[in-house]
Amino acid sequence: MKKPSFIDSFSQKVDVDSSDTVLVVIDMQNATGNRNMGLGKLLSEAGKAEQSDFRFSRIEQMLVPNIQKLLASFRDNNAGVIYITYGAETPDARDVPPHLKPIVVATNNIVGNIEHEIVADLTPHSGELVFNKTTQGAFRSTKIDTALRAMNAKTVVCVGVSTNNCVAMTAMEACDSQYKVVIVSDATGTDSQEMQDSTLTMLGRLWSRVMTTDEVVEHISA
Predict the structure, then answer these.
(1) Which among 219, 222, 216 has a CA at the least distance from the CA of 69?
(2) pLDDT at residue 29 above 60?
(3) Tens of pLDDT along 157-170?
(4) C-alpha–C-alpha distance, residues 30 and 114, integer Å
(5) Which CATH class is domain 14-220?
(6) Spatial separation of the C-alpha atoms in residues 131 and 9, rounded to whole Å
(7) Phi, psi at 29, each rounded to 5°
(8) pTM of the model
(9) Can you give the residue ranges of every domain in the chain?
């Protein structure tokens, strides 16, 4: 049980209601979410597969099934779903900022390549929005804000990878854009438990409400 902090008294109330809540699935792609492609393949061929085992085991055993559960609940309750991908939209990745270009190129994460595709178990349904970003945060380089406002969204529920990079950046941008934010603790993942825990602690301080998959499903179905 988390000990109460002084910051809790300043944190806004975050509601999850199917009428104005959108599930945002972030970067669940083959490039960094499939141990047999992209990053996973790169590390395996370099003899460093053990460095990514925490990441991919968590994705396979926890993230994919929990995101499937959330997607089913949001769809069943007519709540919004938006997918976010990241990667280059030009063959030479010249459209990607310098701090991201090396990993984008190394993992072959370019629109049109299989590495850029969303993992098969989380394939979007027909008509669901998919926005590609070239930055870590989705609000900087996609039209997600325009779409959310058109959908009359007040709350965004963030899931995917990596918790401490693209998920956190997107969540913080959403909060600064005056949306209420939920981070799903067991539907997000990164490279170590330490990174996961520290990022959730940080995001729980003013930025967002941290909930489990089951808690979100219970609220969205209410």
Answers:
(1) 216
(2) yes
(3) 999 999 999 999 99
(4) 7
(5) alpha beta
(6) 35
(7) -115, 165
(8) 0.96
(9) 14-220
pLDDT in tens, 54-81: 999 999 999 999 999 999 999 999 999 9
pLDDT in tens, 140-195: 999 999 999 999 999 999 999 999 999 999 999 999 999 999 999 999 999 999 99
Q: Compute the half-sphere exposure of residue 106: CA atoms within 13 Å on the CB side of its CA.
A: 13
- Per the CB < 8 A criterion, the answer to whether 85 and 29 are in contact is yes
